[in-house]
Design brief:
The protein folds into four domains: 223 residues, Nucleoside diphosphate kinase-like domain (Alpha-Beta Plaits), CATH 3.30.70.141; 64 residues, no CATH class; 125 residues, Thiol Ester Dehydrase, Chain A; 157 residues, Roll (Thiol Ester Dehydrase, Chain A). Helix content is 33%, strand content 19%.
Length: 684
């Protein structure tokens, strides 16, 4: 009797794969989340993907979207199905690569690693016999454009392994045979499978050559036909039907006598009647009867009688639901503006004497596409270029704004370094890397966990370079702040001449449209709010004067009314957040919640106001040199936000520490630790 075991009895819930183990795969490589998680840590996929990423993005897109793999296994060679399969494949597109491959027990287990958890021992042993029976033929076809990738279309047209489910238009139906394991062909199901299987079947030089061959797209039909002829020439043909096997056995037994022969004949009759499925026992009886079975007879007998799968199990990765591909709005595989991640070992021509790679050359003459940074205005884009340094490090070029109505609004003019511009650069650098280099889709909503910047000492009051170089080191892990996949980034800012500017940190997670919509609905419902976001609440108190918060334009003030603390010794100050959603300098596009950058600007203004009142300094002479923010919860647009600031530390050299907290209906939505400095020499 088969015992059903509950999943909870055998699976430890702490056993999981997540973003902390490897960079996430492009979601357009597979519609199956489990496959993306497994392939992200799969060495065969990673090797092949890195080789593919040596090509330009347009070539990668062309290969992934328009190419499919068809593997004709040894049973197709001995069963003489190669020519028919090649003819059928020519109807689907143009054969652009043909390579003989030799499978073994290792490659089969790797190729079907995520399906063979259900495979019976019979199935595994017989598969080993099949691949030892000769060479296979790998064909790659370039197919016309379609809504689905070529891999998905060809996999569907191939037909299932189960004979009962095949249709007349399927390749496996055309090739014949009613056997589950002797099915002649295999296809890569999705773009991710194409990449991984080329990683399994070929070493790095062969893979790179093959990818270049696919990029050229030359017709390889003649080469494929030549390989078919050579494979047929050196491989004897066999009848792979069970009826043919039985006929051969009776012919071999003709004229033989003795108990062993009679026992074998009876066993064959029982098998034909469906009463004997012990193929291993039949093989033993044949040996005793003096008519031993060769490998292909064992294969034919075993594959017709075997139980293919263990009962009560399902594959780790099952078939690909084609309907999921139809849900995608765009047939393109790569997101717009995506650039490949190239590991250091795969790059050449950058060594400098000691072997250290030279920093990638970066451009400053044009901004990156604004969609990469989630902005609508081109004037909002600070990042001008990006490149990968190694597997987890990226370099970016940026130009700080000189005439921006908000970010350049400083009492000393845009020559002064202001922390907010560098914080915005952190945010943009993070988005550029995750979209362009890590392939996170553009429809993902990002949830900011933490963001912080420390400027180099005295930098805010020195001559400022307009251009910056940013080095970012990314660590992928599941963040404490969020159950969703996320990244933690460490950033280093330098001037083009090498002068240090500062350091930054940022963490964030992301979710798809449906998940994000559910999250927002739940958060708003917890506040008693409906789905529609209303206008910000009216603030009765007047806005603080721009000069008192380190700005010159009143429209850039986001705080209203000091309501606590009075006089130079005030230690605690409270304000209301005042919003003007029509002001494009701060609200470049519509938001369904208050952006983190706005909350950090409020913290900056509260800190400058508090330090000026406490120390007697002129607010216009002060500037934050450090700001670290965390965001425990989303801040709603249509609820009041209370901002409080207090002096936390006066021991920092040339700076005063300030703690700022923002609360909404009693819940903290933002915490900020900042340091505010004055120029050397004291107050102004």
């Amino acid at each position: 009797m088969t015992r059903t075991v509950k999943t909870t009895e055998i699976v430890d819930p702490s056993v999981r794969l997540g973003a902390e183990h490897a960079p996430p795969l492009l979601e357009s490589l597979s519609v199956i989340p489990g496959k993306r998680a497994l392939f992200a840590v799969d060495s065969y996929f990673r090797d092949s993907w890195e080789d593919l990423c040596e090509l330009p993005p347009d070539a990668i897109e062309y290969i992934l979207r328009h190419h499919a793999v068809l593997l004709l296994k040894p049973d197709a060679v001995v069963g003489r199905r190669l020519s028919a399969a090649l003819g059928w494949l020519g109807e689907q597109g143009t054969v652009v690569a043909a390579e003989p491959v030799r499978l073994d027990r290792h490659t089969t287990r790797v190729m079907w690693q995520y399906q063979w958890n259900v495979a019976s021992r019979d199935r595994r042993d017989l598969a080993d016999l099949i691949v030892r029976g000769g060479d296979s033929l790998l064909l790659i076809v370039a197919m016309p454009p379609g809504d689905r990738p070529a891999t998905v279309r060809l996999s569907g047209a191939k037909g299932p392994a189960e004979p009962a489910r095949r249709q007349p238009w399927h390749l496996r139906h055309r090739l014949g045979n009613d056997n589950f394991l002797l099915n002649f062909v295999h296809t890569a199901d999705e773009p991710a499978d194409l990449v991984r299987e080329l990683g399994v079947l070929f070493d790095a030089p062969q893979r790179r050559k093959l990818y270049r061959q696919l990029r050229r797209g030359a017709d390889a039909t003649a080469a494929a036909q030549s390989l078919v002829a050579r494979l047929y020439e050196r491989t004897p043909a066999r009848d792979l039907s069970l009826a043919g096997f039985v006929e051969r056995m009776y012919q071999r037994l003709a004229g033989r006598t003795g108990p062993a022969v009679r026992t074998l004949a009876s066993a064959l009759e029982a098998m034909e009647a469906g009463l004997n499925a012990d193929w291993r026992g039949l093989c033993d009886l044949a040996g005793v009867a003096g008519v031993p079975l060769d490998a292909w007879d064992r294969i034919v007998l075993g594959t017709h009688l075997m139980v293919a799968s263990e009962s009560g199990t399902v594959p780790i990765l099952a078939g690909v639901p084609g309907s999921e591909w139809d849900r995608r709005s765009e047939p393109a595989i790569l997101p717009p503006g995506w650039l490949p991640c190239r590991p250091r070992a795969a790059r050449t021509g950058h060594d400098r004497g000691g072997g250290e790679p030279a920093p990638p050359a970066l451009r400053y003459d044009q901004p990156v596409p604004r969609g990469l940074i989630h902005k609508e205005g081109i004037e909002e884009v600070l990042v001008t270029d990006s490149a990968q340094v190694d597997s987890g490090t990226f370099a970016l070029a940026a130009e700080l704004p000189q005439t921006h109505c908000y970010l350049s609004d400083l009492p000393a003019g845009p020559a002064r370094f202001d922390l907010m511009a560098v914080l915005e650069l952190c945010r943009q650098a993070f988005y550029v890397v995750v979209h362009r280099h890590l392939g996170v889709p553009f429809d993902r909503a990002f949830l900011l966990g933490r963001l912080g910047v420390d400027l180099a000492p005295q930098l805010p009051f020195a001559d400022q370079p307009g251009r910056l170089r940013v080095e970012t080191a990314f660590e992928l892990r599941r963040l404490i702040e969020s159950p969703r996949p996320g990244l933690v980034a460490g950033l280093t800012f330098t001037a083009p001449d090498g002068r240090p500017v500062g350091t930054g940190t940022m963490s964030g997670s992301w979710s798809g449209p449906a998940e994000y919509g559910a999250l927002r609905s739940a958060v708003r419902a917890a506040h008693g709010l409906g789905a529609r976001v209303g206008p910000p609440p009216a603030v009765r108190a007047p806005l603080l004067p721009a000069a008192s918060v380190g700005r010159t334009a009143q429209r850039n003030v986001v705080l209203a009314g000091r309501t606590e603390g009075d006089g130079e010794g005030a230690q605690d100050n409270a304000f209301d957040l005042a919003l003007d959603l029509a002001y494009r300098g701060m609200f470049d596009h519509d938001h369904d919640h208050l952006p983190g950058m706005l909350l950090m600007e409020a913290a900056r203004q509260a800190a400058i106001w508090t330090v000026a009142r406490t120390t007697g300094s002129l607010a216009g002479a002060l500037t934050p040199t450090r700001l670290h923010a965390s965001f425990p919860a989303m801040a709603e647009v249509d609820l009041p936000v209370r901002c409080t600031a207090s002096i936390s530390d006066r021991s920092e050299q040339d700076a005063t520490g300030v703690m700022v907290s923002m609360r909404q209906r009693g819940a903290t939505v933002c915490r900020v630790s900042t340091a505010v400095a004055a120029p050397r020499g004291g107050r102004l």
